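hey so i finally got around to running the thing on that chain from the lab meeting. sorry it took forever, my laptop kept dying and i had to restart like 3 times. anyway pasting the input first so we r on the same page abt which one it is
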Amino acid sequence: MPRLVMAETENWSCKCLAIVRIVSQKCGVPDFKKEFIEETTFNSESVAKGFPDFMSFAELMDPEKGFYDQSGDKVTLAIDVTVKETKTGDK
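ok and heres what got predicted. didnt touch it at all, straight out
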């Protein structure tokens, strides 16, 4: 299994693009998708805590919206990340 060397290094950075989807659990309802098309840089000093404006919790849990699977008590996420550049070592 490949190792994530960056996780073992104090000084690292990673530029990436991402597509985050909440997978619809209801037939005929499309997935909810946000594309982060501008390169985002994450690094060893980053304190990123998510995306506060992605979707409200009330909307996510609304059975009519079709994203929450009540029978399985779950939400399914699909995340595609494209890494554009990584750096390790000195800042």
